[in-house]
Amino acid sequence: MDTTYSFFQHLSMPLDGDMPAGILQTNEVKKILSNPFGIDVITRHEIRPNPNRFFAHLAFSEYFRSIPFVLQRFFSPINSIYISCAIFKTILQILLIYLLACYISGTRAILTTQFLIPVILITPLFQANGYQGSMGIINSATTYSFFYALPIAFLLLLFLPFFNTYFHGQKKRFNMLNLALTFFVAIIVSFSGPLIPPTVCIVSVLILSSKWLNNFKTLNISSFILKCWYAVKQIPKLYFMFLLPVAILSMYSFYIGTFNSINYENNITLLQRYAKLPMGIFETFTNKIGFPLLILMLIVNAYLIRKYYNSIEGQKILTILKWIIVFVLIYILLLPLGGYRSYRPNTIRCDTIIPVTLSLFFIYGISTYYIIRNQRTDKKWYVASVIVCILIFTLADGPGFDKNACEKDALRTIAASPEKIVFLQNDCTVIDWQKITDPINSKQKCELLKYWGVINEDKLYYQK
User: Fold this and answer.
1) What angle do helix axes 380-396 and 354-373 make, rounded to 10 degrees?
2) How many helices (H) and strands (E) does the chain have?
3) How far apart are CA 338 and CA 262, in angstroms?
4) Looking at residue 12, what DSSP letter applies?
5) Integer Cα distance of 68 and 415 in angstroms
6) Report field, pTM of the whole predicted structure over 0.85
7) Where are the alpha helices (DSSP H) in 127-218?
8) How confident is the model over 298-329, as pLDDT tens digits?
């Protein structure tokens, strides 16, 4: 039911201004696609847009160069575009919810209570409208969903076996084939989006630090230096075999990402970026009730686990919560290093903090599910509070089924008009981030419409 509702929400979103360049594969995009690992950046110190995002560009362009045409067998060219966007976003949302439920439950059996309760807890947190502006995962702009949420889904898939081993005690044997496949996914992940390299590096360091700290505490060695060394030696080799290559790939990706020409086009000093960060944090986490409510529930969960449900599993959850807090702090403090964008004046926005948001979703889901499973008879109020939380998020995420009605009317007007230069009276964006007042600025958009078969001749359009 919620999936169907989400599909229609995604179906109602307008097209974004980054779609034409990526789908038509402009010269800048072709440079990325012809050099997937940014070797030219290293050899020639070439500065160009998005040198470390090959797989995101490839997935995005190939999807929209094929799926709309498949759908045109059943729908009009205009409708096929929006349905293509909705299908991708809905599948991505389902995948993320599925992966989070796997992390929380430790099972992949989707028709079990063990799996469905985490799904019920997590699903309302995914906001297409409502709190989307502060804690959205599936961006209203389809391009951003390809470059931000999709790589994070693969990253969750990459780390899932290790989490299941640590938390759920599942024994997974990693043979050479598994390691090869894991490394292959790591390559895709590392060159898919701007959020992955710093996230992988931080998570890898925290995982190794956690293992080292646990070993250090248990060793009974008087020499501090020897104790530090043996704490390292006792970390299973598998962690190094997996984490080090992935971290190295991510660091390389992060390095070539510093040659992103967009960073130079929108440059302000690092000090100025950090000066804007506090306001960005305040606005993101307080402008709507979504984040405060989620954080309040986490505080309540931590208190209840510590006081009433402090088993071995409960201690693990509290430990994970502590490391997530460390991750969130480090991640946010590193955000200004990623450059400045005029459309993100305070650095933080829902798209740049998706790893933070998903980590909070996860720890909320796993802690809530743990308390529900171990519910005390004198704590029935807790289940009621969880239900209220679910209702608040569900009701906040309004339908918004008419968000692209104006844009669709504009596309129909362009398609039906006999004029070469079409004046649009519609007061909305049309495949752009802002209204187009100069017809020449619509050239690339019309090329895309012609490519999709919405129009069959060269046209331009403009608005007041």
Assistant:
1) 150
2) 23, 2
3) 11
4) T
5) 17
6) yes
7) 132-135, 142-144, 150-167, 176-190, 196-218
8) 999 999 999 988 899 999 999 999 999 999 99
